[in-house]
Specification:
heterodimer; A: Rossmann fold; 2 domains; 7-stranded mixed β-sheet; B: alpha/beta; 5-stranded parallel β-sheet; 5 strands
């Protein structure tokens, strides 16, 4: 594969393949057939496609009931509505109940750009990763999205899959093996570690190339699973590199950076920078413009890495 | 009335009195709970578990079992007492209600307690889950049915009305909602808080087939459950008119007993009253 990909395509392909093999799989959406790309699923499996209408609390509750009846529901909708509107149902009906339900949020992060903060979903990792029993996965490219959908289906319990619609290049080799709760080291390095997930992974890789030009060897970890977080990979990075920079398409409060910082601060203190949206409602503007506005670009990430290395005393 | 029916009714009345006594003892011992709602739900729960639900205490996870979802999870004491009477739980375990590490939490937990189909406690969750279960049976063409018991104050939660629309839209005649219409919520009468009436008209307008019964009359409840579904292609709603605290004169219809714990003397007086009525 070359060029840029919309991970939703990999998501629906995997879901349809799973549905062919497993009659328990059903898909639900909140009147979002287009934005979740479920039109073909609906056509192929009309008995197993349920449009709940614009009613996210009901949709998540219905998912829990379908799971009680032996189904494996994939609940698909825009992340901003799916997580915030139905958070109590996610907590009680899915996580506390250990219901075998998969939440597939599309158009997460800043992807809705110009539609503004009502549609941005830069709080969803903070909301979901605090909930026990809920596995939280943010795939980086189509290969990982495909495998994450299959891993979610195979896992007996609730999963939150955060799928972007912003085009990304393929960052994993075709033989990549995604494992729940395990970070993937995409580039080794001993000076600084960049930890990213989702659409920021390809940017972290570009950052590593920029840093290499300055003689700095950056390690790049794709931390696709935010909960359970890969403690070992973080501890290793803290021990083997001078500083850690996390990069996420999310608020800097409570997301990937927070999850990494919880491990670093309590087990392996090392200088850190947390990059993301700095605890504000993002202004309106295209998603790409917003990423640039907040410095979530290879150049912006490079500057943050240089600063933190300076602070850590690792650069002379 | 046929002799066997009369025998069944006697048995249900006896079991209901037992559930009432047991729930009050559990609340008294745990020093927490919701005795008013426990007593208003007791006859409905007993009728369901002993005369309606197709369930097997030895196979609580059997795929083809009927599902009963207790949406008013705060009335867990009467649910646990009913489950114990039906053999899903050991009687003596009821003494652990809400004690440290007990699986009988203040609100029901489906992951720990046999017979509990849904973890509830925050209101407005049971009906959507029940709609999902009914949809699962529909997809499989399976014969098992789904029942859900909600409170009445609980119907102020909007999620119920999302589910009400969905159940009617999908034509789920394998789904039955029972509303424990005791007219009171935590702080006051429902009608003085946020008005629910005309409640039956609301359900009809949402596309449900509705019947109203005396929720303490086992014969009336049995008769209603025996006519399910009330209309083919529509979900069924039974508005069960009840009294909060039913069976104990000084608890009945008094809002303060929503979550008041009886003193030793009150417990004794209540148990005596319930025993006298049952004998």
């Amino acid at each position: 594969m070359s060029g840029l990909h919309d991970c939703r395509d990999a998501f629906v392909r995997a879901l349809e393949e799973l549905a062919v093999r497993d009659p328990r799989i059903v898909a639900l959406t909140n009147d979002s057939v287009g934005s979740t790309k479920l039109a073909r699923f609906r056509q192929r499996f009309p008995q197993r496609f349920i449009n709940i209408g614009i009613a996210e609390q009901n949709m998540v509750g219905i998912g829990a009931g379908l799971a009680n009846g032996g189904k494996i529901p994939f609940i698909c909708g825009a992340s901003c509505f799916l997580t915030a509107r139905a958070l109590e149902q996610i907590k009680v009906d899915l996580a506390y109940s250990k219901a075998n339900v998969k939440l597939c949020s599309t158009t997460s992060g800043l992807a809705y750009g110009g539609l503004g903060p009502t549609h941005h979903s830069i709080e969803d990792l903070a909301w979901t990763r605090v909930i026990p029993n809920l596995t939280v996965i943010v795939p980086a490219d189509p290969i990982e999205t495909d495998q994450a959908v299959r891993a979610a289906a195979a896992l007996d319990g609730p999963v939150f899959l955060r799928i972007s619609r912003m085009p990304v290049p393929q960052v994993h080799a075709a033989d990549y093996q995604f494992r729940v709760g395990r970070a993937a080291c995409l580039k080794n390095g001993s000076d600084v570690t960049l930890i990213a997930n989702g659409i920021m992974v390809c940017r972290a890789l570009e950052t590593a190339a920029l840093l290499a030009e300055q003689g700095i060897a950056a390690r790049v970890l794709n931390m696709a699973t935010v909960r359970p977080i890969d403690r070992d990979a973080i501890l290793e990075a803290a021990a083997q590199t001078a500083a850690i920079v996390t990069v996420e398409e999310h608020s800097v409060v409570g997301g990937l950076g927070g999850a990494v910082a919880e491990v670093v601060a309590t087990s392996a203190p090392v200088h850190m920078r947390i990059l993301g949206v700095p605890g504000v409602f993002a202004p309106t503007g295209s998603a790409q413009w917003l990423l640039e506005h907040f410095g979530l670009t290879p150049a912006g990430i490079r500057n943050a890495a240089l600063e933190v290395l300076e602070k850590a005393g690792a650069r002379r | 009335m046929a002799l066997e029916t009369e025998g069944l009714l006697q048995e249900l009345r006896k079991l209901s009195a037992g559930v009432r006594r047991r729930s009050l003892r559990m609340v008294h011992r745990a020093k927490l709970g919701h005795p008013g709602g426990d007593l208003s739900s007791a006859d409905i729960l007993v009728t369901l578990y002993f005369a309606v639900l197709r369930i097997d205490k030895d196979r609580p996870d059997a795929p083809d079992r009927d599902r009963f979802i207790m949406s008013k999870g705060h009335c867990s004491a009467s649910l646990y007492a009913t489950l114990a009477a039906a053999g899903f739980l050991p009687e003596e375990e009821l003494e652990t209600f809400a004690q440290p590490l007990s699986r009988l939490s203040g609100h029901p937990d489906r992951t720990t307690t046999p017979g509990v189909e849904a973890s509830t406690g925050t209101l407005g969750h049971g009906l959507p889950v029940a709609v999902g279960a009914a949809l699962a049976a529909r997809i499989d063409g399976a014969a098992w049915r789904t029942f859900v018991l909600t409170g009445d104050g609980e119907l102020q939660e909007g999620s119920n009305w999302e589910a009400a629309m969905a159940a009617a839209h999908f034509g789920l005649d394998n789904l039955t909602l029972v509303v424990d219409r005791n007219m009171l919520q935590q702080g006051d009468a429902t009608e003085r808080t946020i008005r629910l009436e005309p409640l039956a008209e609301k359900w009809r307008a949402f596309g449900w087939a509705v019947r109203e019964v005396n929720g303490h009359d086992h014969a009336a409840l049995l008769e209603a459950f025996g006519r399910l579904p009330f209309e083919p292609g529509r979900p069924s709603c039974i508005i069960a008119h009840t009294h909060k605290g039913c069976g104990v004169s000084f608890i009945e219809d008094r809002p303060e007993w929503h979550h008041r714990v009886p003193t030793d003397e009150e417990l004794e007086a209540a148990l005596l009253e319930l025993e006298r009525a049952a004998s």
